[in-house]
Amino acid sequence: MERKVRLYGDPVLRQKAKPILDFDELLRALIDEMTQSMYRYDGTGLAAPQVGIGLRLMLVDIQDGSGPTPMINPELIEASEETVKGEEGCLSFPDIYEDIERPKWVCVRYQDGSGKEWEKRLEGFGARVISHEMDHLDGVLMIDHLSHLKRKMLRKRLDIIREKAREIIQSLESGIPEA
Hints:
Blueprint: H1 25-40, E1 45-47, E2 57-60, E3 69-79, E4 83-90, E5 93-103, E6 105-111, E7 117-123, H2 124-137, H3 148-153, H4 155-174
Antiparallel strand pairs: 1-2, 2-3, 3-6, 4-5, 6-7
């Protein structure tokens, strides 16, 4: 089963996610569902808040052939001061792509699905994906990195996404499947 990606305007996207304490079958099922959702929506990363779950879990696929990596309770332990600007999209902001400044490299510590701790240093695209998904776990969105003027220019498109988010929330609350 895949999970519906929440859109800009859904309050869950602005909440700080809580740590995961139980590494059990429910967690593994959530990872599987998120993996299906990430690929269905053609993503390279997905954070649990984006599917309505306020937990510190993210999936990343840095497109190096290793497939999706679940990162549980990730911590950014180091990041370069040097930044690079690059185009980013976000599953919670369909069809919006903007240049965002991110660290050139990052080092992240996380746990896998069994609770084992790992550290990984990523550069370029990998650093961008990690930084983007880490933001989601802290309630920070892609548009928060844009200037006031740029957000103002996107206002109409953001309003359309926000309205779609309201419709999704209403359908989820009513138990009525979406069309």
